[in-house]
Amino acid sequence: MRRSASLLIAIAVGCLLTGAVLFEEWKSGIPWIEPQVINPGDAETPPSDAIVLFDGTDLSAWNEGEGWKVKDGFVEAGGKQGITTKEKFGDCQLHIEWASPEKVSGKGQGRGNSGVYFMQNYEIQILDSYENETYFDGQCGSIYKQYPPLVNATRPPGEWQTYDIIFTAPRFLEDGSLKTPAAFTVLHNGVLIQNHVELQGGTFWHKPPEYNKHADKLPIHIQNHGNNVRFRNIWIRNVEQSPAREDESKVEA
Predict the structure, then answer these.
(1) What is the model's pTM?
(2) Distance CA 101, CA 225 (A)
(3) CATH code 1.25.40.10 for 51-238
(4) Of 199, 229, 239, nearest to 94 (Cα)?
(5) Structural domain boundaries of the chain?
(6) Where are the alpha helices (DSSP H) in the chain?
(7) Residue 70 to residue 77: CA distance in whole angstroms
(8) Are 154 and 140 in contact (CB under 8 A)?
(9) Handedness of CA 230, 108, 139, 167 (dihedral sign)
(10) 190-233, pLDDT tens digit by residue?
């Protein structure tokens, strides 16, 4: 066995010195489609393929914005209802910046409360969880009433915070039953707090989670919970799943 190993090493060294090929490179053989080239942007500029939902000037990309106040580059929750995007989304990447009120008022769920809903069914909680006790699956960064965040990365009241959320929409069979569940990956202020967590169903406050078949794409909703939470720099990217292979006719060509 030692002689065989030594012989292989000697052959490999000889091949390296002479440029001969000892092992053939493995390739998958899958004719992948070339990834699109984009500009990734920076802290102030979204990626070039992003859809800007709020740039600090108006709520033209949203419905039900009555009572929400746009000023100084941000929008503040107000009025009697939340806002909902005019456009619909499925799998996506959402960036949103928010700040709870600087003046602390209330406690628990009554302090800086809001939320981001995907497909109007699946919520990532927004809450002032800086030195503010509440139930863990309802604190800031939780998948509401289902999963607490891995850590509490909340900044003090009034400071700007970021969510970067990757959402995978659920898939349903024709009979309405669930094929694959929804999933969230969430970074809060750059810290991973939800790691591809699969949801048990919709995130309801008044009943256990469950799935009900819905459209493949639905709007994004930002909740108005009666607190003056501020938002800015909101953009979203559609995430299309790359096909493993091109059409057979293209492969044969």
Answers:
(1) 0.86
(2) 13
(3) no
(4) 239
(5) 2-29, 51-238
(6) 2-18, 248-252
(7) 9
(8) yes
(9) negative
(10) 999 999 999 999 999 899 999 999 999 999 999 999 999 999 99
